Task: inverse folding
């Protein structure tokens, strides 16, 4: 379900330049990061001409570290 939410938000952002919130409402940040990073990655692969840059708006240094680690894991897999 979170995956579907992220996809819908990315489509909305793509049309209206809106921001997607990430894991602040007591949802486990590790799972939020995994879903967000992999969903954005898949969207970018399917829509490579739509974006030049993805910026994460994260709430604290712990969340930043978790997202950075997930991005690093993803790119080691690719």
Result:
């Amino acid at each position: 379900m979170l995956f579907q939410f992220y996809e819908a938000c990315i489509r909305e952002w793509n049309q209206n330049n809106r921001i997607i919130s990430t894991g602040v409402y007591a949802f486990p940040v590790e799972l939020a990061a995994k879903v967000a990073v992999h969903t954005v990655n898949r969207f970018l692969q399917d829509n490579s001409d739509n974006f030049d840059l993805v910026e994460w708006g994260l709430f604290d240094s712990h969340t930043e570290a978790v997202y950075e680690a997930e991005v690093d894991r993803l790119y080691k897999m690719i």
Observations:
- The chain has one domain: 2-77.
- Helices lie at 2-16, 29-46, 61-77.
- The chain has a mean pLDDT of 79.
- Residues 1 and 49 are 26 Å apart (CA to CA).
